[in-house]
Each structure stands twice: as structure tokens, then as C-alpha cells.
Design a protein that fits this description.
The complex is a heterodimer of chains A (about 260) and B (about 325). By secondary structure, chain A is an alpha/beta fold. Chain A contains five helices and ten strands, in the order E-E-E-H-E-E-E-H-H-H-E-H-E-E-E. Chain A has two domains: about 130 residues, P-loop containing nucleotide triphosphate hydrolases (Rossmann fold, 3-Layer(aba) Sandwich); about 70 residues, no CATH class. The chains are: A alpha/beta (about 260), B mainly alpha (about 325). The complex binds adenosine-5'-triphosphate (ATP) and magnesium ion (MG). Chain B: This is ABC transporter.
Chain lengths: ~260, ~325
Amino acid sequence: MSTPVIEATGLGVTLGGQPILDGIDLVVPAGEVLALLGANGSGKSTLVRSLLGVVTRTAGDVRLFGAPLGPSAPWDRIGYVPQRLPAAAGVPATAYEVVTSGLLHGRTLRPHRGHKRRALDALADVGLADRAFHRVQELSGGQQQRVLIARALVRDPDLLVLDEPTSGIDIPTQATFVDTVSRLHDAGTTVVVILHELGPFSSLIDRAVVLRHGRVAHDGPPPRARGEHAGEWHDHTHAHPDPEPPRTGPSLSVEVNP
Amino acid sequence: MTAWDQVLELLGSPLMQRALLAAVLVGAAAPVVGTFLVQRRMALLGDGIGHVALTGVALGWLVGSWAGLVPQDTLALPGAVVAAVVGSIVIELVRERGRTSGDLALALMFYGGIAGGVLLIKLAGGTNANLISYLFGSISTVSTADLWWTAALAVLVLGVGVGLRTALFAVSHDEEFARASGLPVRLLSMLVATIAALTVTIAMRVVGLLLVSALMIVPVAIAQLFARSFNRTMTLASVIGVVVSVAGLVLTYWQDIPPGATIVVLAIGVYAVAATLQPVLRRPPPPQDPHPDMVDDVLLVDDVDDADGATVRRPSPTT
Ligand SMILES: Nc1ncnc2c1ncn2[C@@H]1O[C@H](COP(=O)(O)OP(=O)(O)OP(=O)(O)O)[C@@H](O)[C@H]1O
Ligand SMILES: [Mg+2]
């Protein structure tokens, strides 16, 4: 088999003197769509942040595409959508500028030729072409989230890490986004997505990892649908005609025995 | 004498030529760095560095008099550069540890820097009066050697600030994402702190250490009233910095007023006027519906009878 996209062994993270993650082993093979589930505060965000080197780990080892974290990791192949935009800064910045910053990675400190086209295309992909030169601080919460998605997609990643990408996003845009992810998935992109509800993603997900108190409580097939959301009264609207309308999501029931 | 003759006379004076060149360089470079500082919410960093640089000036003086150099203040500028760079890196390290202690570290530097400077200058056999020209600037004493230093450092600051602006923007805007992109976040943060320190030392001669920060921050405050983007803010702030620096300096040619203070008062005056006029002057956004043109997420009862293909007909529970 080819090298796994993510390979974490014995991962442990301590923040503020408290153990947040402990003994996490996670291997994500290429092309898989992995859902990371768990209650608020169970450590999902901390896990992806430590996998990407945002928070320093206190134990264990992480490899991305077979390379250890650090300058030599293939950062151009990784796209990350954080849970939220940082608190508004003092200086205005446009959506276009934020997306352009997504073109920098590793030791690439200046955007390459043709960056303007790429940034505008990425914004158009999330339906924000007409807002490219607006201040991000003046966009709505969901529009800001879409800017963050465009910033991750602009470098055409082979690994997409999404931290609750659809929270605060309206249903048509969610569906468009799921279409985009499924297109990338078909092209071979590996996806790790943190969710509270499988929702529109449910048809894409190959495997689910459930965290509880900073440990893996379940690793295997995604939890089964609970039914009440998948009833016949639950219909979807769609922003554009779609050959295959997205299936509505079953809500997640985290009933797993470790 | 016509106004034109006066301008010619002004431009003919070698002293004024040097001062003008220094003002243009400093006026252009300081707001570029200031834009990053404001974005990082460290607008007072320049002030903290300025205070520490005073200790550097006194230290340079002390070493100079100890080594028997003439004049005694030969090493004042190098001393200020060293102290400012060390101070800015210390502040950056403290900030990195945890944001809450950042302003405490700044406070310590403010007081420690001034007290250290006053103490050391006494030990060096100087007086507080010797420090005044560094505290409030003395652009009229700019020598040719000073000018070369200023020019070299200003070009360095502008080169880094403009050349790496996307990367510096990335770390200043969203540090978490920058880390997740493998960018050398620490190095870039240190770079911002270092060019801030260099700016403080070159602006020291023009506006003085106590007012350095004003030249870095006030043009940015003016620019962001009007600019929509980060790049525009930076460019506009830089232009404003040059204009107020040159205007302030030229005023002092005819009036016996301190140039540093004049430049800062002028900048703040421009800010006051701009802030007042901003609602009138700012380009109105293009006349369009601020709500995006999208199919509504929420199905209203009326939509059900719509023939619009974009909405899916909800089966009525009564059928
Ligand atoms: N910087 C920090 N310092 C101390 N504790 C932290 C820090 N960041 C997170 N934590 C703690 O770590 C735990 C896990 O946080 P994390 O953000 O990973 O949760 P999560 O699973 O993503 O939750 P949510 O669903 O709310 O996003 C929480 O209890 C939180 O209080
Ligand atoms: Mg989270």
C-alpha cells in the first residue's frame, strides 16, 4: 500500500498543564473521507491542530505524506479550514487578500505568478466572486467561513482538513460545498472533517473516529442514521440544478461503547 | 522674494537637503511597519522599543566615553540599534508565550528603558540635556554619515516590508493558519519586530524616540478610514507619512518650531479632519443589494406555489 496521508502514533497534547489528548493512534490512507466526531471539548480541534503542527505535541509522532512535521513536510498539499476566523484585526483586509495568503506555504513566502487568477477562481468556487474586494470584517459569519474554505482550496490540496466547515452556513451553500468536496474526493483528495452532524456529508464518509475525553472511543464505520431526520418530510433545496441531489443527513447518535 | 525663490533657497541649503531626504525615507518606511503592528494589535510596540533605545543611546555614549572616542556620542546610534533589536525580540518572545503578559512586558520596557537611559547617561558623564535631542528629535543635526545610515536602513525596512508583505500579512492576520501552512511563523514574527526596531532607530533623528510610534501608527489610522484592503492601507499610510513629514519639516524652515513635534501634530490634525470628513469622503459602496443573490434557505409558504425550479416542492401533509 502507498504511504498513508496521516500517520499519528501515541499522540499526546498537554495544554495549560492539562492533558487534552492522550495516546491517539490514527492512520488515514490516501483517498479516504474521515469524520472526526465527539462532544464539545472532547479534543477534536486540538487533534487536527496537533496533526498540522499548530499546537506542539507532548508525546508521539506525526507524519504527513510520510514526512515528519517541519520545513520538509509537503505543505502545499495540505489545506486547512480552522473553526473560526481570528478576532478582527486592526487593519482592513479583503477576502481576496485573505485567500491569497493561502497560496503561501512552507518556504514559499511570495505568491507565484498567476496568483490573482487562482485566488479569484477559489472565491468564485464558494460563490463569493462579487465580494472579493470587500473587507472580510464586513462579511457575514457564513460568508467569512466561505472565505476560509476558499483559502484552503486555493492551493489544490491533496489533504483537506476541515474543522466544522458547515457550521453557520446556509443549506444551499452547504450543498454546494459538499459537491465541491465530493468532486475533490473523486479526484483522490483525502478529507478529514470535524462534524457534529453528518448531515449532507453522510454519503461521502468512509469512516468515523469518535473522540471522548481526549481518547479515541470509536474507530470504524460511521454511526448509523437515527431516522427522524431522514424522513420523507425532510426535503432539501439546492442552489443549482444537480444531477444527484444531496441526500439529507441523518443526525449523529454518539452511542458507542469503548 | 517670491514663493518660488523661497523654495529654491530651501532646496539649496545642504542642511535642508539632508533633512528632507531623511524625512522622505522615514516618512515612507515608518507607516509600512506600522501597518503590520496595527494588524498584530501591537500599536504600542514602537513606543516600547523607543524607550529601550534610549538606554541603548546612553550605553553607546558610555562605551564611547570609556573608549575615549570623540565625539562622545559616536556610538549612540549603533547602541540604539542594538538595544532596539534586542528589546523587540524580547517583547516578541514574551508575546509568543502568552498574549496576556504582552502589555506587562511593554510596561516594564517603557519604565526600564527611560530609567536606564537617564542613569547611564549620568554615569557616562553626560547630562539629561544630551538625551533631549534623542527624545524629541533633532533633524537639523543630521550629518552625511547619519543620512547614509538612515538611507540604508530605510531601504532594508521597505524592502522587507513590501517584498514580504503577503507572508507578513499571513502571519499577522491568522497565526494558526500560517502554522498549519508550515510557514516559518516565528522567523516572520521576529522579522516584523526587527524591522520595527530598525525603524525606531532611523526615525529617532527625525521625530525623536518619544514620538517615533506616532509616525508609525497615525498614518495607518488615517489610511484605514478610507482604504478597503490591507495593501491600499499600507500604500496610503506610506504616502501620508511622506507628506506630513515633508510638510512638517518645511514649516520649521520658516518658523522656529521643533520639527518632530510639528510632524506629529500635523499627522494628528490630518487624522482629526479625515475622521470628521470620512462619512462624506469615503467612496460609497456600489449600489447593489447587500444581501447575496441566492436561493433562500428558508422555505416560505408562498414559495411552495412558486413555479421556480430552484425550490423543491414540499409535499403537503394533507395529500
Ligand atoms: N489553549 C488552550 N489552553 C488550555 N486548554 C485548552 C486550550 N485549547 C483547548 N483547550 C481545552 O481542550 C479541550 C478540547 O478542546 P477542543 O477545542 O479540541 O475541543 P473540540 O472537540 O474541538 O470542541 P468543539 O466541538 O466545541 O469545537 C477543551 O476542554 C478545552 O478547554
Ligand atoms: Mg472544535
